[in-house]
Each structure stands twice: as C-alpha cells, then as structure tokens.
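At this stage, I wrote out one protein, both as residues and as discrete backbone shape codes, and that material follows here.
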Amino acid sequence: MYEFEYQKPSSLSEAASAIKSADDGSLLAGGQTLLPTMKQRLASPSDLVDLSGVPGLSGISVVDGNVVIGAMTTHAAVAASADVKSNIAGLAKLAGCIGDPQVRHRGTIGGSIANNDPAADYPGACLGLGATIVTNNREISADDFFVGLFETALDDGEIITAVRFPIPEKSDYSKFAQPASRFSLVGAFVAKTSNGARVAITGAGQAGVFRVPAMESALNGDFSAASVGSISLPSDDLNSDIHGSADYRAHLVTVMAKRAVDGCG
C-alpha cells in the first residue's frame, strides 16, 4: 500500500466534510474491493474515510411497503434477516450467495452498489426490484443510478445512506458463479411487481447490470419459465473472458432467467 490518511468520523456530516476536503479520498465501507486494490497498488487514495463509526447507517426495517436497508448493513445480515426473507425472498437468497462467509460478514450493501462491479450481485437486485438509492443529498432510482462500468450517478463525495426496496409479489435470483471468486458469470434477478415484471442481468454486460425488456414483456403476458425460454440475447455487448465467451454468457442469461422465474414459485 501507499501512504494515506485514515479518518473515522462520528457523524454523516463529518464524513461528508472529510471526503470533500480530501485531495483524492475514498469512502471505506466493508473494504472488500477497496482494500485489495490498495494492497495491489491499483488504487492510492490520499485519505480513507471510514464510515463504520457513523451511526444510523446499518439496520433493516419494513416501512410503507418497502424493505429499507442501511448502507453499512452487511451481506450476512441481509441474508439472515427475517424481514427480508418474508418480504423479498430473492434478495435474501442473493445476499447469501455473495462471496464466502468472511466476505459476507464484512462486505456491505452500500459499498457494493457504490462500486458497481459488473459482476456484483446487488446491482441486479436494485435494478430488478426498482429500488431507490438514498444518499445524504437526494434519492436516485436504480434505473438512473447504474450508468456504466464501475460508474454510478453519485456525485463526488456523495454518500449512500440506505437502499429502499419495494416489496414485490414474488422474486428470485439465479446465479452462475465463477468457482474461485464467486462473482457472477451471469446472474438473473426476476421480480413480479405491481407495475409488471422486471428482469435484471448482472455479470454479462460490458457496461454492467442491465434489464431485458423482451423478457419482461413476455412475463407480463405469462409469468412462466416457458415464456422466457425462447428469448435469446445477442452477444455483441456481452463480456468475453477466460471464464466464458460472450456467446456462452448469452446462453446463460436465458438459462438463469428461466431458473429465477421457476424460483419465484
């Protein structure tokens, strides 16, 4: 690692001030991505602003038809939550298949979303459920939040405080994981909501998480695995690497979507 200044503010306003005044600061949530990249000297922030001392950023509640999850809530807490399991089963399932137990007990939902890794799982849940990302300055719909590879709509120094997930009629997540990293080669989050079906794919797209309108339209007519089984995506804009070609990922999109629909019951 390169030398850096470590700061641990005790309030959200202090955290916002610290990151704003830093030359090239980074927010530290769970650190499951940031710290390894710093160790590899792929990142060299001037300051680390640790959010673990800021009160009110963790916890899970059900409010007005939404499951609200604080940004510093760990994946393990989401997976184990009775409120999440009973209201959004697909979200609990997704959280339980992130990484390994060590990662799940340190990594946070806010950190994952802010990083927007193209193979991360939570962006699929946010987009698949039509979530709202709450920050210290505003609220951003998931459809507007994920704007590109490792890019979000967050302004410099803006801090995610919570994620608000509307409770769907049913949901499920199906993931084909890379065996070593447990990141998604392809993950499909499917939800049946009061406003229609939503299908979000992670791991496959060159620009990150994306929705599949053709599958959503088919599910609105017939919410069954058979309705999406004949829908295939072109591979032009899909990832291709040592773990799987673009054509292979295109095939997996359909397979994972069918499994997720089946899992919705």
